[in-house]
Write a structure and sequence with these properties.
Elements (H helix, E strand, L loop, with lengths): L8 E6 L6 H19 L4 E3 L8 H13 L4 E6 L5 H10 L4 E6 L14 H15 L10 E2 L1 H22 L1 E6 L14 H5 L3 E5 L1 H10 L6 H12 L9 H18 L5 E5 L6 H5 L4 H9 L4 E2 L4 H14 L3 E9 L2 H8 L10 E6 L12 E4 L13 E7 L3 E10 L5 E10 L9 E6 L3 H10 L6 E5 L4 H10 L7 E3 L15
Parallel strand pairs: 1-2, 1-3, 3-4, 4-5, 6-7, 6-8, 8-9, 13-16, 15-18
Antiparallel strand pairs: 10-11, 10-17, 11-16, 12-13, 14-15, 14-17, 15-16
Helix pairs in contact: 1-5, 2-3, 3-4, 5-12, 5-15, 8-9, 9-11
C-alpha cells in the first residue's frame, strides 16, 4: 500500500512543578520501554529535551519533536501535569495528538511518589475544550506503563487517518449520473476536514486517455493483468485498453497531486463512458484500490473519502458496494437459517459491478457488465471483475455530508458468509446483527446513499474514534443497536 501515511509518534512527558519531576521522567522511561518491547521502536520517539512544566519547556519540546520528524504526538501526564502548558503543546502541534496519564504503581509510593494524574487528566480535558483543541483521549486514559503502551498502539490507525485527511486530494471526473442525487457531495465539509478536491470533466479524462494510445508501458501492464487474472482472464482482448486507462489514471494522479501526499479518485463509469471509451472501468478501479489508491464508482466523492479512511485505518484494500438486495427466502432457508445465528433480515447482498480487488474475492473472472448490456452492445461493457467476496469479518461504514452541510456517519460490524451468491458482479452475502432495524432507523432515517464502504476486518472502534476526532457529532454516528435497545425513531409498540 503506497498511499498511506507513515507514523512517527513523539512522546512528551509533562509535570506540574509542585510534584517531583522524577515521577514523569521515570514513568516516561517505563512507558517507552513497555511500548518498544511489545511494538518495536520504529514509529516512536521519546522527547529527551525536557519534562514540560512551563510554556518555555513547551516550546522546547515542540521544536524537538518537530526536528525529529514526528507527525503525531502523545502528551503523557506522569503526574498531575500543567494544564496550560500541556494543552498549548497540543494546540501548537500540527498533527493528531493524544493524552494519556500514569496510574500509581504501588501502595509504597502513595506519599512522596504519588502522581495524581487521574485528577490531572480531568483538568487537561477541560482545558482542551476551552481552547477548542481536538485530541484523542482513549476509553481508559489512565493506566500502567503496559496499558498506556497499548493505548498508544490503538492511537496509530486514528493518527494515520487524521494525517491522511490533512494531506488528501480527491480527484473526480464528471458530474454524477442522472438519478444519483443521493451521492451528493457538498464541498464545504471536505475543506473543513482539510481535504482538497479537484473536479474534472469526462472530456478531460477522455483526452488524456487518447494521448496514452500506443504507450510503451501497455504491454508490460497487460502481462501483469494476465498474471493476476490467471484462468479468470475471459476477455483478453480488452486488456490493452484497460491498461491504457490505468496508465492514464496513474499519470493523472502524479501530475495533479500538487502539494498533497495522498490521493483518492471518484470516477465516472456510465452512462456515456462505456460507449466512448469502449469498456467499463471496474477492473482498473479494483486494481488501483488494491494498490492503496481508492476509486469510487459513479463519482461518489464521499464514497472515495470513506474508502480512503478505511484503507488508512486497516492498511488494506477496501471496497465500495451497493447495499443492494435481500437474500431470497429459499436461499436463506437452505444455506443460512440452519447454519448461522442470523434472522432473515440480518442478511443482505452487497454488490457492485466489478470493482473489488482480486485479493478480496474468493474467485474471479473478467466479464461484461450485465445490467448495461441489456441496452448496449455487450462488447462495449467488458471490464468487470466478477466473483464472490471472501468470507470473513467486515465493517460496513460511510462518512457523508448532508445536503445542509452536516457531517454524518455510520458503522456496522458483521461478516461475509461462506455462501455462494448465485449472482453476478463483485458480490457477497453480508450478515450484520439487527441489520433490518439498522437499515430502517439509520440508513433510511438519516438519508444515507446506497453506497457503503467495506473494510475487511472489524474496525468499528477505530472508525468511531476517527469520526469523533474529525468532528462528527457523536449523536450523528449511527451503528446497529443490539436487540432490546430502541432507536429514537423506532416505534416502542412495534
Amino acid at each position: 500500500m503506497n498511499n498511506i501515511p507513515e507514523l512517527k509518534i513523539g512522546i512528551v512527558a509533562v509535570s506540574r512543578d509542585c510534584f517531583p519531576e522524577s515521577l514523569s521522567v521515570n514513568r516516561r522511561k517505563n512507558l517507552v520501554e513497555a511500548y518498544r518491547e511489545k511494538y518495536g521502536d520504529q514509529d516512536i520517539y521519546e522527547c529527551p529535551v525536557c519534562i514540560v512544566e512551563s510554556e518555555i519547556h513547551m516550546m522546547q519540546a515542540l521544536e524537538d519533536v518537530k526536528r525529529a520528524g514526528c507527525n503525531a504526538l502523545v502528551v503523557y501526564l506522569g503526574n498531575f501535569g500543567p494544564e496550560i502548558s500541556e494543552t498549548l503543546l497540543a494546540k501548537y502541534f500540527d498533527g493528531p495528538k493524544m493524552f494519556i496519564a500514569a496510574a500509581e504503581e504501588s501502595r509504597e509510593h502513595l506519599t512522596d511518589s504519588r502522581g495524581d494524574a487521574y485528577c490531572g487528566m480531568l483538568n487537561a480535558s477541560y482545558n482542551l475544550k476551552l481552547r477548542g483543541v481536538r485530541a484523542y483521549i482513549p476509553e481508559s486514559p489512565v493506566g500502567t506503563a503496559q496499558e498506556c503502551a497499548d493505548r498508544i498502539a490503538e492511537f496509530r490507525p486514528i493518527a494515520r487517518a487524521v494525517i491522511g485527511l490533512q494531506n488528501l486530494k480527491i480527484i473526480s471526473f464528471g458530474p454524477r449520473p442522472l438519478n444519483f442525487l443521493a451521492c451528493n457531495a457538498p464541498i464545504q465539509q471536505l475543506y473543513n476536514l482539510g481535504v482538497e478536491i479537484e473536479e474534472n470533466s469526462e472530456l478531460d479524462l477522455f483526452e488524456a486517455f487518447q494521448k496514452h494510445q500506443g504507450d510503451e508501458r501497455i504491454p508490460a501492464l497487460v502481462k501483469e493483468m494476465e498474471e493476476e487474472l490467471g484462468e479468470g482472464n475471459k476477455k483478453p482482448g480488452i486488456l490493452p485498453r484497460l491498461a491504457q486507462y490505468e496508465l492514464t489514471l496513474r499519470d493523472w494522479v502524479e501530475e495533479h497531486k500538487g502539494c498533497r501526499k495522498y490521493v483518492a479518485i471518484a470516477g465516472k463509469c456510465w452512462p456515456a463512458f462505456q460507449t466512448q471509451f469502449g469498456f467499463v472501468p471496474c477492473y482498473v478501479n479494483s486494481r488501483l484500490t488494491g494498490q492503496g489508491i481508492p476509486v469510487s464508482c459513479e463519482v461518489d466523492i464521499y464514497g472515495a473519502l470513506s474508502e480512503f479512511i478505511g484503507t488508512v485505518v486497516s492498511q488494506d484494500a477496501v471496497t465500495l458496494l451497493d447495499i443492494n438486495n435481500t437474500v431470497p427466502q429459499d436461499l436463506y432457508q437452505a444455506e443460512i437459517q440452519k447454519n448461522y445465528n442470523y434472522k432473515s433480515d440480518d442478511v443482505f447482498m452487497g454488490f457492485h459491478c466489478g470493482n473489488t480487488a482480486s485479493s478480496k474475492l474468493a474467485f474471479c473472472q473478467m466479464k461484461y457488465q450485465l445490467i448495461m448490456a441489456r441496452t448496449l452492445p455487450e462488447e462495449s461493457t467488458q471490464g468487470t471483475l466478477e466473483g464472490d467476496i471472501i468470507p470473513g469479518d467486515i465493517t460496513f461504514y460511510r462518512l457523508q455530508s448532508t445536503a445542509d452541510n452536516k457531517l454524518r456517519a455510520y458503522i456496522a460490524q458483521g461478516e461475509v458468509l461462506p455462501v455462494r451468491t448465485n449472482s453476478f458482479g463483485s458480490i457477497g452475502i453480508f450478515a450484520i446483527p439487527e441489520m433490518g432495524r439498522f437499515y430502517r432507523h439509520v440508513l433510511v432515517e438519516k438519508n444515507f446513499p446506497h453506497h457503503g464502504a467495506v473494510a475487511f476486518g472489524h474496525f468499528g472502534r477505530e472508525l468511531f474514534e476517527v469520526f469523533k476526532y474529525i468532528g462528527v457529532p457523536v449523536e450523528e454516528i449511527g451503528y446497529n443497536q443490539p436487540a432490546g435497545v430502541r432507536y429514537p425513531t423506532e416505534n416502542p409498540w412495534r
